[in-house]
Amino acid sequence: MIRINKINKVQLNIDREHLRKMGYIQELDRSIGVFSNFALSFSVISILTGLITLYGYSQEGTGIYLFWIWPIVGIFQLIMAICLGEIASCYPVTGGVYKWTNILANRHVGWFNGWISFIGWLACTTGINYGLSQFVLMFLGYSSDAFYPLILTFVIIITIQTSISVIGIKLVTKINDVSVGVHIFGVIGISILIIIFAGNQINWSVISFQSFYNNLPATNYIPALLMSAWTLTAFDASANISEESLNPSRTVPYGMILSVIVSIVFGSLLLFSLGQATMLTNDLSNAHTSIVIYAIENVLGPTLSSFVTLIIIMAMFACGLASQTVTMRIIYAFSRDNGFPFSNLWKMIPNGYETPVFSALLCGILEGVLIIFLGILAIVIPSSPSIMNNGITKSLPTITSLSTVGIYLSYAIVTASSFLQRKKIKNDSGQFRTGKFGYLFNAIAFIWAMTISVVMLFYCNRTTTTFFMLYLVGITIYYFLYMKKILDYRYHELSETELIKIENMRGI
Amino acid sequence: LEQNYYDILITRKQSDDYSKRSGLKKALSGFYLWGIGVGVVIPGVFFGWNNGLEIAGPLGFLIATVLVSVYYIILVLIFSELSTRFPYAGGPYAYARKGLGPFFGYITGVLTIIEFVFAASAVTATFGNYINYLNPEIPNNLVVIFLYIGLIAIDIIGIRASGVLQLTFCIIAICALVIFMMGASGSINYDLVLLNQPFTNGFRGIILAIPFAMWFYVCIEAISLVSEETKNPEINIGLGFKTSIITVVVLSILILAFSLLTVNWVYIVRSNYPLTFILEQVQPRDKTLMLVFTSLGLCGLMAGLHGMIIGSSRQIFSLARAGYLPKFLSRIHPTTKAPYFAILIPALLGILLSNFIGAKILITITGYSALIMQALVFFSYIAIKNKESKNEKGKKLHKGALVWIAIAISLTILILFTLQQLQYIWLISLTLLIAALYYIIIGKNFIFDEAPEEIEAKLEKIYTERKWYELR
Fold first, then answer.
1. Could you tell me the sign of the dihedral formed by the alpha carbons of A77, A79, A81, A84, in that order?
2. Distance in angstroms (rounded) separating the CA atoms of residues B122 and A112
3. Structural Rg of chain A based on CA atoms
């Protein structure tokens, strides 16, 4: 919607100098403004994706009285966004979490954190596209738990997204700008429709705190917590495109915080109205596919519910695309520091392109690999649903909880290292500062992230636990065999004058 | 002659100052133009076209629609080239002024105003019908007046606000059409088209149905009328025109196909709200769907109404700015740069006409005046092109053959149509006669040379004469 027509050259030079100070040259196309930056984070958070795909699963523990989990998670995540925003304002480089840990702690911790964040983002993208393929099948009238059609749809979706990513960041940005409209209008539309056609039967007990509070042991809240925590995360997306944003020191933190606030507001609206729809639906056990769609169909009739599905599909597609863009940037930033196997390939930006093409391809392939691997793993582990043995609709929580663990653990590590390095942050401070509350916010954010990752790792899903442990062992072995030497080696860091020379040589 | 040439140079500078003082604000990008272009024609998809079914039969009407679609695609190519070249609020008037001289420029402008105002009043009438459908107890005149007040208020706030509003309406209307297609897709039956005389009245029917097929696309010229308010006109106008026509062609053909394939066409002929009627037939039990669709459909009508008000106001504004119409009509608000009198007048006319004339006549007159206006614009294209070949400045117009095809189509339709329906012609002729008299008696004497459309036309003449002078 809002596009920058006259790119301010002075600002571009300032941004370029800032980047040079951190030891990089400007290779990517810098053209993203505040709105598009917000749009990317908002699209990745994507209330329509997270809340709707996991709504059915999240009712397993608490029933429909799960509303209050959302604002609670929202407040903590807002604090997290403020914290990360401050760091992003100091160090606006592509790579986000990984780079920050690198700067705030050391390269070794940074490297580990990069891998943790990477698996979180990869699983996030996979989860979104997995949910999307289920919805597409549902929309086309197939059963959403047939294995081969599902995999086929999944592959087609990934192919389309990868092609769009390869074409360039400008197209992705445009799609994201539209996606914001789809999300906001979609949520408002769905909610208004449900609330109007619920007639006089608006049921305020959906948000009654008592029904939420009085039941059940703590573990029953985990599914609802997973829904909220997985949905309202991944706003470090904004940070991952900081090398493509104008004046990132201001743009990125505001993009992040704004996206969280807007998501909290519209997410509450959506949850409230979904609660109304489920309340009005008597026989939820008949729902073959998604509880949400079943309930909406019950309230609004078949035609409107398939229209709503269409809107949700559009939102999910944009969300998957945004998420893939970010995952690509993480691979790119990682291999720029040679932290990835075959780094030279992934960091290459071929002539005539503006994006790291091979890392887009890698990202697409890894999504497919991850989903198959999780399926096989789940077969080995007793009593866990796998896509290979009729548990297709139930295996989404596995992927999403893996994603939640990865992303929250990486946040925890960053906040821990920033807590230990408050002085450094104060010295390098950018245009967004927390001031006096810095320590407090930082401590709360760290404790929150740590809690969520521990809960999701150990109490949610066995497949996740196993996979994540295996993954950690794998990267540790890789670290000791190969990576430690490289990270220890003090290679010559390029000075600013040398960077300017390189820039002039390559005509950037 | 040399003296004359320098005069014009001075006038050019003066005219730049003049544009700064009385030009409109540049605020629209390609996306907004798409919204205005699609929004202004989208009511055509919601109603009006079904009158043509009665005359031509389903297959005959389909043929008429395809013919009109081809015609309008050519028209959009020509218009986008012209309005990129002359991005003035005058639109058709500016082109005809340049190609055919002041009198025809003025007449083209008046025809455009007639087209937009009559279309707006047809939409207004239907808006009342929709309100009646939703709740018969609400007095629809009151609703219409409130609607007009709201739309006018937003237009006076400025073109940016109008663009946002138009875009929102337009997207909601497209959503409504998608919902319609989804609702109808369940009961498609291919035999329905062939029942009950697919070609009523044969060839004659096809010709007579053309204004109703044109109703799908009528007023898409609105984009050229807001070209003065467009940022980067070289890129955005072409983009806006082309994306809009693609969207509208796809939508109208799809809606027509879905309607004809789901319900026996005999029943939808007489309906004031055909799409709602079809949904009612297809899914009789789903009251929610009907209510939602009709409410969203209202947004489509509002988009059309709003686009038509914008269009006619710009045309009136530019004619008044150049002195053809009374000067007070070209007054613009000092900060928002909205021509408020020019916005107010067509809106009042629209409300008035909708109360006195039936929708069918309104649609016919709209189509007829659009056809004459378009033929005049095509001729002026040819004239501009011929003049241009004499001097070598700048980028030239280059669509020779296409324009002749367009002229052939529009003249054929115009002549055949005139022969078939003489009863409506007197109304247009009378209006044009009054307009012409006004020009001869008053308007001619007040033409103001500093308006951008006038200066553009004058410059051409001077270039030619200067060349002749140098040759001597």
1. negative
2. 68
3. 22
* Distance separating alpha carbons of residues B472 and B459, to the nearest angstrom: 20
* Residue B466 backbone dihedrals phi, psi, to 5 degrees: -65, -40
Return d(Cα A399, Cα A397) in angstroms, integer: 5
- Between CA A299 and CA A199 the distance in angstroms is 10
* d(C-alpha B362, C-alpha B356), whole Å: 10
pLDDT, chain A, mean: 83
Look at B178 and A310 and tell me if their CB atoms are within 8 Å: yes
CB half-sphere exposure, B186, CA atoms < 13 A:
14
pLDDT over 70 for what percent of chain A?
Answer: 92
Residue B3 is predicted with a pLDDT of 45
Which of B286, B253, B261, B130 lies closest to A306, judged by CA? B286
Strand partners, B241: none
Q: Which pTM value belongs to this model?
A: 0.85
Kindly report the number of other CB atoms within 10 A of residue A209's CB atom: 10
Contact criterion met (CB < 8 Å) for B289 and A193: no
CB within 8 Å of B294: residues ≥ 6 apart: B130, B133, B134, B273, B276
Give A444's contacts (C-beta < 8 A, 6+ positions apart): A76, A79
Q: Does A197 contact chain B (CB < 8 Å)?
A: yes
pLDDT tens, residue by residue, B399-408: 778 889 989 9
Put simply, whether B231 touches A (Cβ < 8 Å) is yes
Among B456, B156, B451, B157, residue whose Cα is nearest residue B320: B451
* Interface pTM, i.e. ipTM: 0.80
Indicate left, alpha or beta for A23 from its phi (over 0: left) and psi (-120 to 50: alpha). left
- Amino acid present at B64: A
| pLDDT tens, position by position, B266-305 | 888 878 888 888 988 888 888 888 888 988 889 999 999 9
Helix/strand/coil for A32: strand
**Length of chain A in terms of residues written:** 508
The three-state (H, E, C) secondary structure of A217-248, written as one string? CHHHHHHHHHHHHHHCCCCCHHHHCHHHECCH
Task: Report the alpha-carbon distance of residue A308 to residue A301 in Å, rounded.
Answer: 11
Residue A332: predicted pLDDT: 86
A178, A307, A311, A314: best to mutate for the B interface, most B CBs within 10 A:
A307
Chain segment B320-360, per-residue pLDDT in tens = 988 898 888 888 888 878 888 888 888 888 888 888 888 78
What's the rounded Cα separation, in Å, for the pair A303 and A295?
A: 13
Which residue of A188, A297, A303 is the best one to mutate when testing the B interface, meaning the one whose CB has the most B CBs within 10 A? A303
> Which tokens sit at B309?
């008000």
Token pair listed for A156: 């087609």
- Say if residues A197 and A299 touch (Cβ distance below 8 Å): yes
Output the CA torsion sign for B394, B400, B405, B409.
positive
- Per DSSP, B200 falls in state T
At residue A265, what are phi and psi to the nearest 5 degrees?
A: -60, -55
Decide if B171 touches A, using CB distance below 8 A: yes
